[in-house]
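Troubleshooting: if your tokenizer reports a length mismatch, compare your output against this known-good record of 271 residues.
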Amino acid sequence: MYSKYHGCGNDFIVGMYDKNIDYAKFSQKVCNRNTGIGADGLLIAKVDENKEIEMMFYNADGSRAPMCGNGIRCFAYFCLREKLVDSNEFKINTLSGKMGIRVLSREPFVGEINLGKPNFSSKALGINTSKETFLNEVIMVNGWKIKVDAVYMATHHLVVIVDNLKEVINSDLGEKLSKHKIFTKGINVNFVQIINTKEIIMKTYERGVGWTLACGTGAAASFVILNQKGLCDNKIEVKLELGKIKLSYNENKEILMEGPAVCIAHNIEID
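Known-good structure output:
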């Protein structure tokens, strides 16, 4: 049995681990919006002998990704509903390490995720460059010079500050940057429009998915880059198409992400 959840419109199929399933193929099947249930990604809960919980995350195209910000809130809510945990504070294992969860409200669900510290290493980001970091750089796309900043914020992200999000969405810039040859592992591209020092709006082109309604780690990456440039405060609100996410630093300079998760359907049988 599976369930479907969304975090600010970023939607996922969620279920328990089955060793007999090839999840790379399965995610392509169930995430297809025409012939499957339809979702941006697949989240699988794998519980080991010590009752530690791992979140296995697959994009809609079958590729596995290290982490997902909206996904982990949905996953945390799933763990509570399925009684895998019964605490308002717990940890979830991911390919990006352990993520700390703090439940602020169970109904409606609101969770705070400790995403850890940003990593600016070009090597960690899989960028084909001799430079140690990839900040304040320029990439040529369609004859245009695009100013970009890259940061590993639980997964691979590129941040682009723009004046008009609508113009970007109607172009192929997201796809071109995401698949640019310099990014050997591909990259999630976050386009950010600044409202003021406390509010931004953003749109993300996710590798392996395309345009999504929301991206939690992308919001965190955007916050990190803007804050580093002195363009936003130490606590901001990110406005997305179907909701908002709050981001801040804790005393250890780790990134905290606060946002909702909603269960759309449960006990779904998939042939």
